[in-house]
Design a protein that fits this description.
The chain has one domain. The longest helix is centred in the middle third of the chain and has 48 residues. The protein has a two-stranded antiparallel ribbon with strand order 1-2. A hairpin with a 2-residue loop joins strand 1 and strand 2. The radius of gyration is 19 Å and the shape is globular. Helix 3 crosses helix 7, helix 7 crosses helix 11 and helix 8 crosses helix 11. The chain contains 11 helices and 2 strands. With about 300 residues, the chain is an all-alpha fold. Helix content is about 70%, strand content about 5%. InterPro entries: Cobalamin_biosynth_CobD/CbiB. One of its GO terms (cellular component) is plasma membrane. Keywords: Cell membrane, Cobalamin biosynthesis, Ligase, Membrane, Transmembrane, Transmembrane helix. It is found in: Cell membrane.
Length: about 300
């Protein structure tokens, strides 16, 4: 295992310039492979879910090892790392989705905003007004700054190309099967728990970087409110963003008929539409700050 700081930083630049590929996205390809594997391995038990996750995550790691063995020289390894980093990062696409939602809400097109929200989160958009949609977007940008950008960079810095691919595999499997419903309550348990584990450190790094980029308000809310969220990781990101933006996040959310009342984080007003653009800019700044840290440690 080798780590190329130059490759990771170049991958961040490529993601900022290009975003996700329109066709033949490698993560989408992995998702198709995972869907086929689910048909063969699914069973309503935890151990089957463990096998499913193990096969796919180890397979992703093996692919990463193979890429590093082929890319032997420093330049080749750096370029391979950059390409894989670009493939697994999603920060630019996250920001673009946030801006699409901002435009819909700025012109008062709530139906278009409700139709688009599932691109960002699993929250039921049907009963959401403009305020509810705005809060959902800000919270999603905050939480996914870690999942889309900081966590893959962290694991790339720790584990090179295998670390990048294994992280994205875990995160993708959680998005596919990590749900508490009749089909995935047991089968998706391993994916959900492993995703919590691999995001534990990156979520806290994300909160720290948000505070570093924005000031003491984010630190204060992060330390005070970050543990209130039912997720062991999302709360750190959302609390830091709440403090940085001077808004109040949390409240009642509905997911496919299941209602959750979450504690509020932050001391400010309810988020407004203009805060979506602020959140997107902050998310980008945090990603570039992470790249700067990686570069400084090379």
């Amino acid at each position: 295992m080798r780590v190329s700081a130059e490759g990771l930083v170049l991958g961040v630049a490529l993601d900022a310039l290009l975003g996700d590929p329109k066709k033949w996205h490698p993560v989408a390809g992995f998702g198709r492979v995972a869907s086929v594997a689910e048909r063969y391995l699914y069973g309503d038990t935890r151990w089957r879910g463990v096998v499913y996750v193990g096969v796919l995550v180890v397979g992703a790691g093996a692919l990463g090892v193979g890429i590093e063995r082929v890319a032997r020289g420093r330049v080749a390894h750096g370029l391979a790392t950059a390409g894989v980093t670009w493939a697994v990062l999603g920060g630019t696409s996250l920001g673009r989705e946030g801006l699409v939602m901002a435009r819909f809400l700025e012109r008062g097109d709530l139906e278009a905003a409700r139709e688009r929200l599932p691109h960002l989160c699993a929250r039921d958009p049907r009963g959401l007004d403009a305020g509810g949609l705005t809060r959902a977007v800000v919270e999603s940008v905050a939480e996914n700054t870690s999942d889309a950008s900081i966590a893959p960079l962290f694991w790339g810095a720790v584990g090179g190309v295998p670390g990048l691919l294994m992280y994205r595999a875990v995160n993708t499997l959680d998005a596919m099967v990590g749900y508490r419903n009749s089909r995935y309550e047991r089968f998706g348990w391993a994916a959900a728990r492993l995703d919590d584990a691999v995001n534990w450190v990156p979520a806290r790094v994300t909160g720290g970087l948000v505070a570093l980029c924005s000031g003491r308000g984010a630190w204060r809310v992060l330390l005070r409110d970050g543990g209130k969220h039912p997720s062991p990781n999302a709360g750190r990101c959302e609390a830091a963003f709440a403090g940085a933006l001077g808004v109040r996040l949390g409240g009642v959310n509905e997911y496919g008929g299941r209602v959750e009342k979450r504690p509020e984080m932050g001391d400010g007003r309810a988020p407004e539409v203009r805060d979506i653009r602020r959140a997107v800019r902050l998310s980008a700044a945090v990603t570039f700050a992470a790249a700067a840290v990686i570069w400084s440690l090379r």
